[in-house]
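User: Fold this, then the next.

Assistant: Folding the first:
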Amino acid sequence: MKGVMSLITGFSLYVAGVINEVTVILVFFMFLDFVSGILRGWLTKSLNSTIGLAGLIKKFAVIVILAMTAGLEYFFVQMGQDTGGLIILTVSSFFIVNEGLSIMENCAQLGLPIPPVLYNSLEKLNRDPSGKEQAILRDPLLDKIDKAVLLKEVKQQHHEITIQEDKKEEDVK
């Protein structure tokens, strides 16, 4: 039943023009980027769930932007301005290029041969103006924290706060 509903919903969205071929290509590129990122992390022994989750959140945000773009496109069509799907095509194309660069970067870090011109361009794209590499870094302090001890401390503090609140209520009576 779920499969039939998914098929009907997907077909309806396609017919309504919200999802077009370019959007499908973007989702496919997102999938390829995610898989190539996992492979890169596994092969370079730098697989990190925090970075992976951040990547998934970013991909979800791209879908939110596409949904907003589709809403904007729908608004213009309802106002009598036929955009011909140009707005969603432009936004989708931007994100396809972005995903393609990320896939190429992952492949370069996997050791696949990348033309020097593209490799140098990728290297420049990954540096901010101050020359520092852009990366999501986990705070080293988080690795030193013992979660069990932290949970005990939080429970103890919660218990103490509850006792203090009970005493205040008794004093008020």
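Now the next one, as you asked:
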Amino acid sequence: MTLAARALTQLAGWPDLMEAVPSCGAGQALSSPYGEIAHFHSDRDVDLNLTDRAIRRLAGDLRRFAAVRVVPGSSWVTIRLDASADVDLLLSLMSVALKAHLGGPAADDRPVPAATTAAAWASGAPDRFRRSRTRGRPRLTP
């Protein structure tokens, strides 16, 4: 069983989550009462709708994890599942995402389709998703 399949099986058992067809048409998705919240695009990549507010609040912490890719201007992050610890991270971030969605959208939250995350990375993300080294942060390239 792949790490993504293991994570999907665990998350599908959560009371507020159900398996769904992803709006982007690729892979598998999980929905909450608030809409699509996760897309499993491959055996390793999972997009998670954290909300702009949660990403801003956790920005410093998210940068510490090599498994997390924050896409500038998006409320979705991509989590690369390379180890069991990455699955644990996904489960933790899912809890954050569910809580963030429970509060409803903030005035400055922007809806961004999930197709701009893992699918964009997999297809060779456009230059706007790549950032050069700024303020000591590493490049956000796949």
